[in-house]
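Subject: sequence -> structure tokens, single chain

Hey, anyone have a minute? Need the predicted structure for the following. Not urgent.
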Amino acid sequence: IPAYYCKECGNMQVSESEITKCNKCGSKNIEQDDETLDTWFSSALWPFSTLGWPEQTEDFKYFYPTDTLVTGYDIIFFWVSRMIFQSLEFTGQRPFEHVLIHGLIRDEQGRKMSKSLGNGIAPQDIVKEYGADILRLWVLSSDFKSDVSISKGILKQISEVYRKIRNTARYILGNTCDYDPENPVTYEDLQEIDKWALTRLNKLIKDCTKNYENYDFHMVYRDINQFCVVDM
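Reply:
Had a minute. Here:
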């Protein structure tokens, strides 16, 4: 903490640069406070300090308060609660409208991924080996409300699902490339199997929209997989 105490008269000074002389009695017998601020104290300033506060910058006016904070359950007290009370204190507004709380990522042995264990998997390594879409699909497939696991075996399974969804999309695009939206086929002229497929598609759109709004992304993944692999 950048607070300096004079050991002669007890005067306290706060400065961004080092103080070597008391501004009250002139003594050089100065001692800096040996305590440190909790790292979460400064992290709690993140919602508004990154946008130029206390200046009323254009970024601050546009982005603050934000809509959704995404965070793990292990730092609700350390970070989320502190962001809320510091934002209310300094800006008079709550920092976000929603808080999306997710579980932790664990390795194939069930251990929390951490720097100390050295068991983390770098996203860029996954992208390099499997592609960015596989990483995105793994995130989408995970029920984030509880702890989730990741391993090469899981990513391989996700790759298989991705291949089937991609093939379904390629098949549909290949068979509709000459479709003219200006001259659609009337519903009455559709075959029964086409009407059934449209019914399933409409249900898929309705279910996915609902699940997206409820942050149930893994249900979106499940429904799309069901539609592409089983229904189609």
